[in-house]
Amino acid sequence: MDCYTKAEDVVIEGRQIQRLGQTAAMALALVLMSVPAFAQEGASLDLIGMFAQMGAIAWGVAIVLFIMSFWSVGVAIERLYTYSQARKQSKLYAPLVAKHLKDGRLKEAIALSGSEEYRYSHLAKVVLAGLQEYQFQQDSGGASLNRDDVLDTVRRSIQRATALTANDLKKGVSALATIGSTAPFVGLLGTVIGVINAFTGIATTGSGGIGAVSAGIAEALVETALGLFVAIPAVWFYNALTSRLEYFNVEMDNSSSEMVDYFIKKTAS
Questions:
Q1: Cα–Cα distance between 214 and 199 in angstroms, integer?
Q2: 106-115 contacts: CB < 8 A, separation 24 or more?
Q3: How far is Cα 169 from Cα 248, in angstroms, rounded to an integer?
Q4: CA distances from 228 to 32, 173, 225 (A)
Q5: In the 8-state DSSP scheme, what is residue 116?
Q6: Long-range pairs for 86-95 at CB < 8 Å and ≥24 separation?
Q7: Are the CB atoms for 182 and 174 separated by under 8 Å?
Q8: Per-residue pLDDT tens digits of the chain, which is 269 residues long
Q9: Which ranges in 140-208 belong to alpha helices (H)?
Q10: Which residues constitute the domain of residue 120?
């Protein structure tokens, strides 16, 4: 069932990206068809000229889109850096802690897991929780707990650490999904406002020439382009980060199972 659900999600995301591409193509076609008419009327075709013709409401929509763009890029850069550090530090951490555990040096393994050098490592956080709980039970004597109870306590501690670490890794990623799904509609709002201004220009001048509707068309095209410019990178970043999150979750699940197996063998000896 999980495989089918993931496949359906991929298909849905593909359709969304396809719709965004179709909208972008339509906007580009409108720009290309408008160029000769703009040129005949002597209207400004540069981007600065288009922004200069925008009204207050269109500027408000554009500012919202710029904020969404900066937010999504900032979240993406921060998450990519965090994930890169987590992957790099975990690769260095895993063989070192495995050596300590193989030699039975739990305190050294705890010190290694809690060091600042591996503060980004998701594996270190999961392993540290299990080691600390097991060491606490050993130091307290575990008088009221039998072997199975100690293992259950360690297992629950590892599960809590895994859930907290996974939640911490997902921080900000949902914002990318929100921006990717809503930015085209915010841009569409600006497009509608531009079309309304175009019709207002026709009503004011009493003619349907390009000079009467140029300001409204410029607003509509700029807002459409801005909405797509914000949404498409956000969707790309979201998909890239989600795939890395799945990889980290698999690693943490494997580490959790290995830790539980290690404590089962250790308590049996």
A1: 10
A2: 106/131, 106/134, 106/135, 107/135, 110/135
A3: 9
A4: 17, 19, 5
A5: G
A6: 86/120, 86/121, 86/122, 86/169, 86/248, 87/244, 89/117, 89/118, 89/119, 89/120, 89/121, 89/124, 90/118, 90/121, 90/122, 90/123, 90/124, 90/251, 92/118, 93/118, 93/121, 93/123, 93/124, 94/123
A7: no
A8: 444 444 455 445 555 555 555 554 454 444 444 444 444 444 445 556 666 667 778 788 888 999 999 999 999 999 999 999 999 999 999 999 989 888 888 889 999 999 999 999 999 999 999 998 888 887 776 556 677 888 888 899 999 999 999 999 999 999 999 999 999 999 888 888 888 877 777 777 666 566 556 667 777 888 888 899 999 999 999 999 999 999 999 999 998 888 888 888 877 76
A9: 147-169, 173-205
A10: 2-268
Q: What is the pTM of this model?
A: 0.72
Taking the C-alpha atoms of residue 235 and residue 212, their distance in angstroms, rounded to an integer, is: 37
- Residue identified by tokens 């915010």 is 186
Total tally of structural domains belonging to the chain: 1
> What's the rounded Cα separation, in Å, for the pair 184 and 181?
7
Instruction: Record the tokens describing residue 185, joined without a space.
Output: 């509609």
